[in-house]
Design goal:
Largest sheet: 7 strands, antiparallel
Number of strands: 7
Structural class: alpha+beta
Strand content: 25-35%
Length: 148
């Protein structure tokens, strides 16, 4: 499956993510929703935010030119919002998954989908992270992710 298929089908295609992108930790874009681009400095800010969670909690993050307030940040995930919109960003060893939600999507639904895809990718060994949550965290199975 191509990276674009993961964005189109497994993230945005669920109806629980309004826009999505996958970027390599080196800043390269692997796939994204149409007209959804992060600048190199925005990708670097997110990558650095997983290492310096206090900074990203204090200053927020920028995604596609919009500044978001950080709600939670740790080695694996950054959750942020701006008004009724928000984002779930998940880091793996090789990439970050960025999923946005809008006012018509429940934040937890977006989080479940983005975290679930990250867990799936980790489980098949393509991208791994030293700290990860099991698929049972999001009540997803491999078949659930693939079916979406």
């Amino acid at each position: 499956m191509s990276w674009q298929t993961y964005v189109d089908s497994n993230l945005v295609g669920t109806g629980q993510v309004s826009k999505a992108a996958i970027y390599g930790l080196n800043g390269s874009k692997w796939a994204s929703s149409p007209a959804f681009e992060l600048s190199g400095s925005e990708v670097q800010e997110l990558v650095d935010g997983f290492q310096d969670t206090d900074k990203v909690r204090g200053s927020g993050v920028h995604i596609a030119g919009v500044k978001y307030l950080t709600l939670r940040a740790d080695e694996r995930s950054i959750y942020c919002k701006k008004g009724a919109d928000g984002a779930c960003i998940v880091k793996t060893t090789q990439a970050i998954l960025v999923g946005l939600y809008n006012e018509s999507i429940q934040p937890g639904s977006c989080t479940k989908v983005v975290e679930g895809l990250a867990d799936y990718l980790i489980s098949v060994g393509y991208v791994s992270v030293s700290l990860f949550l099991s698929l049972s965290f999001c009540h997803c199975t491999h078949a659930d992710i693939v079916a979406q």
